[in-house]
Design a protein that fits this description.
- The protein has 4 helices and 6 strands, in the order E-H-E-E-H-E-H-E-E-H.
- It is of the alpha/beta class.
- It has one domain: Flavodoxin domain (Rossmann fold, 3-Layer(aba) Sandwich), CATH 3.40.50.360.
- Strands 1, 2, 3, 4, 5 and 6 form a 6-stranded parallel beta sheet that branches.
- The longest helix has 15 residues, at about 15-25.
- About 45% of the residues are buried.
- The model has no long low-confidence stretch (mean pLDDT about 95).
């Protein structure tokens, strides 16, 4: 199965999570590619059987607004039926950005197949193991 991890990272925390999600995908036998929003155009994601999206909380607990949110908005409605999952890091708040993102995905018809993974600041061992498990769950 071809899979993708599409992520945006400002400090490297979400990038570390993305790499670990991809490790989980490959450990489960999938071919995984890491992509940034600049590398994704509408329709590109149709080539993948499963997609993990990663973005940290920004501002007042929203997705990154200059690159990630526009890319996600352009792609989300064409992904119905695809296996998908979400992950990201935050530095403040209570995870509202993830709850809002999950609702947006549901409203767009995305098939979120496992619980989203969040962590505060840099990923600890438990968060990285949850990212690996997310990657595996997406392809099993």
């Amino acid at each position: 199965m071809k899979t993708a991890v599409v992520y945006w990272s400002g400090t490297g925390n979400t990038e570390a999570m993305a790499k670990t999600v991809a490790e989980g995908m490959t450990a489960a036998g999938a071919e995984a590619v890491l992509l940034t929003p600049a590398e994704v155009a509408p329709g590109d994601l149709n080539a993948y059987g499963a997609i993990a999206f990663g973005c940290p909380a920004m501002g007042s607990e929203v997705l990154e607004e200059m690159e990630f949110q526009p890319m996600f908005d352009a792609c989300k409605r064409s992904l119905g039926g695809k296996r998908a999952a979400l992950f990201g890091s935050y530095g403040w708040g209570d995870g509202e950005w993830m709850r809002s993102w999950e609702k947006d995905c549901g409203d767009a018809g995305l098939n979120l197949v496992c619980e989203s993974v969040t962590c505060c600041d840099a990923s600890d061992d438990a968060a990285l193991e949850a990212c690996r498990a997310l990657g595996k769950a997406l392809v099993e």
